[in-house]
Amino acid sequence: MVSGVGYxxxxxxxxxxxxxxxxxxxxxxxxxxESTGQAVNQSAVFRATQAxxxxxxxxxxxxDPAWRRYGVQLWVESRARKRDERIIDLLDEHVRAxxxxxxxxxxxxxxxxxFEREATPKVLDAxxxxxxxxxxxxxxxxxxxxxxxxxxxxxxxxxxxxxxxWREGLSVADLRACLQKQAVESREAFGVALQGLGQVVFGRxxxxxxxxxxxxxxxxxxxxxxxxxxxxxTARAQAQFGALGFDLGAIPLDLVDRPRKAxxxxxxxxxxxxxxxxxxxxxSRHHLVDMLYHELGHAAHFAGxxxxxxxxxxYWIESGVHETFSTLFESLLGEPRxxxxxxxxxxxxxxxxxxxASFKRLLTMTRQSATALAAxxxxxxxxxxxxxxxxxxxxxxxxxxxxxxxxxGRLDSFxxxxxxxxxxxxxxxxxxxxxxxxxxxxxGEAWWRxxxxxxxxxxxxxxxxxxxxxPHSFTxx
Length: 477
Hints:
By secondary structure, the chain is mainly alpha-helical. The protein has helices at 17-35, 42-57, 65-79, 81-94, 112-118, 121-132, 139-154, 160-167, 172-201, 208-214, 230-243, 285-304, 311-315, 319-330, 336-341, 347-381, 385-400, 413-416, 423-443, 451-462; strands spanning 96-102, 105-108, 253-254, 264-271, 275-281. The protein is built from 20 helices and five strands. A hairpin with a 3-residue loop joins strand 4 (264-271) and strand 5 (275-281). The protein is globular, with a radius of gyration of 22 Å.
């Protein structure tokens, strides 16, 4: 008996779909509250997590390869939940500097974006050093999580890289080749663009503190004056999605800045496709607009998936697929015709936003590849935490062109769990480049207005995890 459901080895795996979905929805509701800085019922979190672990354990030897791999992934992640919470608790307890302050109060890992926006160059360096110097307390917990996760996957002859690549339809070798190729081909242009942006924002070259402050934060400030306030830009973005054929008026959009709210922005599919929500912790007007197109793109995707699809095709969608949809919508902010016709921006603003879109693509190809390659090395080579972090710093130096201090990787949400998720952003960029060419063939230069192009987007959205994209090459793109 598994969580109230009798399991028979010959019973179809979809028999478990309904109950798995029920517990995932309960868990997701609590995780949404936690991520948006609201009250969370930890007892409910752990009850749902245990139920998911029990149910997924029954799928570990399932004959269906998709159900088996998804079952292993769910089982391992559920078993890691308490270790994840321990890492968060350690961050809150230790990674803080009471002698350094901003308008958000004493510096902590939760409010460092505010600190970065307000700090002078000298204080910016001091703030990063202060936080990094206090990350040593995290290392035992990070190592313990890595050790147990590796054992759990190995017990079933898998690792997170193999599962991710399989679901994305790639071999591990092709995934690695893709990341290496894109990063190497992008790093020179990225270095030039990065240092140019550093001069604009800081008046000096970019080191670790400056890079950290730029990423998803100060890199938006040069174009901030191009946009309006929260109410204006939120209404305009929602109207643009409506014109594209996606009425997102029912999608909850959380813009409240709470002290414990996760930084940046994210889309959270609580129940796919019935309950999808978006959170943005705004740093600037341009940041808001950029995040709205990206995260509302996720929302249009998750809310548009066919509700009759099997459970696994609605809930197990790896980052290379769902980031493709958000990247497609976000790419409109780099389309000169869209910026001129739909947002009515002048030529100077269009040129600035096109340059920003180019910078951001280079950033994806270098930074996200570096993080994903470090994670891949860790799983494939059996590296311990210190070795994994050292590999991360090496990739950053060679591909991003920035020397990171020891300990900064402990504050990277993807590196903490050695998650290969960032590879999905790279795959998405390549898929979108090919897809936009196909959409232009369907609907012309202003493809976003074309009923044929819109129908193509909706059809691919409805397919869930089985979504296909126009022909492209990851290793030879």
